[in-house]
């Protein structure tokens, strides 16, 4: 079955009304060796379909039917002979049509992707609670809770997030409102959305690849590798509800619409058709959504600006007009600007400097477009054209920075933050994928497996081939991949975006490597000598078949070579964000304890390491907007050597302190730190370290990994004893999962007095070393919290 035979069959299946147009073209082709568009009585849209699918081919500046016999057979209801199958050769699947076969294969890939991302369900849905993965999702949980408490209507966005991710919150809340508007419903929607968004990007990546390469086998390989790419897996896992998965969907739609608008014969004269208008609308919505969904979304639009420069330069180098391609791109940017301004002026979304970005991009691309038109009109050389478009783009940016100082300040600030190659406020995702934090050379494999290393070489190839063969669609995805590769090198937070735009190259690498070992035919796109965009986007070399056993084995080995490590790393990276059972039990225990103590939950604050801080506060008070206090203060607190001196510094803000093990326990000086005193000794004094009197241990997890304290004023014990001696004070304490002896030691002053603060109510044993005083007991009532003072001597202890 030839490519043209397949393309005609697909065209007639999708658009049977074009059958008469095909007959008209076939009649003209029979009468002329070559002909022009004006010679055939069909409209530009129908003609463009036939050219784009390879049914009609370009030759010497005119057109011809690529395979008249194949077209005639299809029009007469005949098909080419199907391959004969036996046990030693490939077996053709007995499915209704070629499209359904590939659709079934894609469905299998999507199911595989769902398994990789949905296995976290038991860790997310725990009884009455929904436990998100990681720290950031609790920020959005906070806002969904606020909207639920306010019984807000659809599209509502709290003021505190209108300058951050307004479209994201609006989308989640609108679905929640339609489903009833409760906080629990909102949390469920928030937990499920990453999985849904991630699964939707799989077929979008498939379609992008299919349109660019013209081969479904490469498209299926791209979808398969994206389904197991670690960074895409854990960023779109069930429960990983930050904004990134939302951004991926709009990025994929924008890229797909861009490919659809650019994947055409660049010498076609038609500019507008129903198909073009549709994709132009999708492009506008994608650009607008990326801008409104994230205040750093404008960075995702950078490839469009660079592509416009490359497109105009390519057009001039090959002597064709950039108008048919850049017109819908430019108009789409204009429509996107209108949508963004509407969101800003009507709904108050995003600050002015963010809203301006698509408008400035529209102006910049428009200027580049005009330079290209002028260059074509006056036949400027490619070098002069390239200089002109670069000058035009830089001029637009320079004028903007001079005339809009607020935008210039924000631009400088974001640029400085972007290029910082060290931690930003301790946040790991702001460092490079090549950072020593991940392993300078091994780090990328943690996020991409080996897919990155196999796919990246095809990116410069796509730029070169796109320029050489006039394939603007190939040039577009090459530009996207180049930009996001640079951004990911700068900050790992862009690695997820890179995984999507890199998928077509990963699919190409897999099929190409398979062809090298003679398992599959060589990708025809690698041998393109003319415009790749004239190839049929749905062409395949063969029907979808089940290869023989040996070929299957080879393909499995090739797949594991490229994607095997990623299949392991995806779950590994996801599990790092899953909260352990003990962390969950600790959070629920604190929640119950705060409720039973009669505290006003809305004002209760849990102090912990910043990476888990939002989770604890979400469970206890619901206020999980910020981890700023924990991020800036907690590291100082646990590394201090005088924990009681921090009691006043915490300023009464902290109600609970949650401590977990830290990797620094083996460092010099650790034994004297607050972390060692509280976490390891539960506040007791030992031979190695002093104790603490303002921290009452109230809970320890079953595996001893989590300990909870309450800062308390405590009771002050004043006593007299032999000067220079050492006094030991102790009491038995029982808390959930732990029974221990709380001990304090203090030195008696030269005046013969001592003073000790203790945090527990109960009976204390006071032993005085180096003197013959008898043991004494001290009964402390629960009212010790009010700071009662006791004076002890050799006879008794009494309240002052």
TrEMBL record:
GO terms for molecular function: metal ion binding; oligosaccharyl transferase activity. It is found in: Cell membrane. Its cofactor is Mg(2+); Mn(2+). Its main location: membrane. It catalyses: an archaeal dolichyl phosphooligosaccharide + [protein]-L-asparagine = an archaeal dolichyl phosphate + a glycoprotein with the oligosaccharide chain attached by N-beta-D-glycosyl linkage to a protein L-asparagine. Pathway: Protein modification; protein glycosylation. Its EC number is 2.4.99.21. Coiled coil: none annotated. The keyword Metal-binding applies. One of its GO terms (cellular component) is plasma membrane. Keywords: Glycosyltransferase, Magnesium, Manganese, Membrane, Metal-binding, Plasmid, Transferase, Transmembrane, Transmembrane helix. It is a multi-pass membrane protein. Residues 183-502 form the Oligosaccharyl transferase STT3 N-terminal domain. The chain crosses the membrane at residues 102-119, 187-206, 218-238, 244-262, 274-293, 299-317, 329-349, 355-376, 388-408, 441-460, 472-492, 498-517, 552-572. Residues 714-764 form the Archaeal glycosylation protein B peripheral domain. PANTHER family: DOLICHYL-DIPHOSPHOOLIGOSACCHARIDE--PROTEIN GLYCOSYLTRANSFERASE SUBUNIT, DOLICHYL-DIPHOSPHOOLIGOSACCHARIDE--PROTEIN GLYCOSYLTRANSFERASE SUBUNIT STT3B. Belongs to the STT3 family. This is dolichyl-phosphooligosaccharide-protein glycotransferase. It comes from Salinigranum rubrum.
